[in-house]
Design brief:
It contains 2 helices and 6 strands. By secondary structure, it is an alpha+beta fold. The radius of gyration is 17 Å and the shape is elongated.
């Protein structure tokens, strides 16, 4: 099993969710996060004063899938989240040793 973590623009969440649900992925966790990368923040104007927002708002989506689903899920996220502009986000993939559903004690594949 693998855990896929995708950092995306907040307004792309619905597109990514629809793409994943249509592909048969039924569970995900979404967190509001802040950070910066190559964008290095943004300069904004409020009541005539200019200021820099160093940490930009993003969303982090976490999904655990079987190994054979990783490439398909990554492609769905990329196609749904891409705008072509700097700041579209990143995808991280890491191994998962075990998953246990608390309610039923099901493990691994059955718990996903």
């Amino acid at each position: 099993m693998k855990k896929i973590e995708a950092i995306i623009r907040p307004f792309k969440l619905d597109d990514v969710k629809i793409a994943l649900v249509n592909a048969g992925i039924v569970g995900m966790t979404v967190l509001e996060v802040r950070g910066f990368g190559r964008q290095k923040g943004q300069t904004e104007r409020y009541r005539g004063s200019e200021y820099t927002v160093e940490f930009l708002q993003k969303l982090k989506i976490e999904i655990v899938v079987e190994n054979d689903q990783v490439d398909m899920v990554v492609e769905k996220i990329i196609s749904a989240a891409r705008t072509g502009e700097i700041g579209d986000g990143k995808i991280f993939i890491s191994p998962v040793d075990s998953v246990i559903r608390i309610r039923t004690s099901e493990k691994d594949k059955d718990a996903i």
